């Protein structure tokens, strides 16, 4: 079954996915209660069925209720979305994507975030050096 990218979901479908990622396993009623201006019970049930057909969620039966959960973790979906943005808008260049974020007045990182990003860069470099040493040390 082909996965549908999150940006290819309708407004209500994205809203439901957000609820499932935030709340975890949820019934139709749970989803309805979390939705602002929720449509009818049958409409929410239909959206859940469509999301299941699209491979975004799955259900288990608990008594007479269906309990819905995402098929992939939020982290996996987020990484996929970021990869898609970097490929689509920045030609695969992480540097260009980060430079754009740093230049954006509305999304500019705080000093604390910049410090954490520096640490992540140092950590990534250390991991790369370790990986290079490991590969180089095996004679390959």
SSE inventory with pairings:
Elements lengths: L10 H13 L4 H7 L6 H13 L3 E6 L2 E6 L3 H17 L3 H10 L7 H27 L3
Antiparallel strand pairs: 1-2
Helix pairs in contact: 2-3
What features would you describe in this structure?
The protein contains six helices and two strands. It is mostly helical. It has a two-stranded antiparallel ribbon with strand order 1-2. Helix 2 packs across helix 3. It is elongated, with a radius of gyration of 20 Å.
Quaternary form: single chain
Count the strands? 2
Describe the sheet with the most strands.
2 strands, antiparallel
Q: Which regions are unreliable across 5 or more consecutive residues at pLDDT < 50?
A: none
Please provide the ordered H/E string of secondary-structure elements. Answer: HHHEEHHH
Strand content: 5-15%
Q: Helix count?
A: 6
Judging from the principal axes of the Cα atoms, what is the shape? Answer: elongated
Indicate the structural class. mainly alpha
Average pLDDT score: 90
Q: Classify the helix fraction into a percent range.
A: 55-70%
Nearest-angstrom radius of gyration?
20 Å
Distance between the termini: 38 Å
For the largest beta sheet, what order do the strands appear in spatially?
Answer: 1-2
């Amino acid at each position: 079954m082909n996965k549908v990218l999150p940006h290819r979901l309708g407004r209500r479908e994205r809203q439901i996915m957000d609820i499932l990622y935030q709340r975890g396993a949820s019934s139709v009623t749970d989803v309805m209660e979390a939705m602002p201006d929720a449509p009818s019970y049958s409409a929410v049930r239909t959206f859940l069925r469509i999301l299941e057909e699209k491979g975004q969620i799955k259900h288990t039966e608990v008594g007479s209720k269906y309990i819905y959960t995402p098929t992939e973790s939020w982290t996996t979906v987020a990484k996929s979305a970021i990869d898609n943005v970097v490929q689509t808008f920045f030609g695969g260049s992480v540097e260009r994507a980060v430079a754009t974020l740093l230049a954006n007045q509305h999304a500019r990182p705080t000093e604390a975030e910049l410090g954490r990003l520096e640490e992540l860069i140092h950590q990534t470099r250390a991991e790369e050096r370790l990986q290079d040493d490991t590969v180089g040390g095996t004679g390959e």
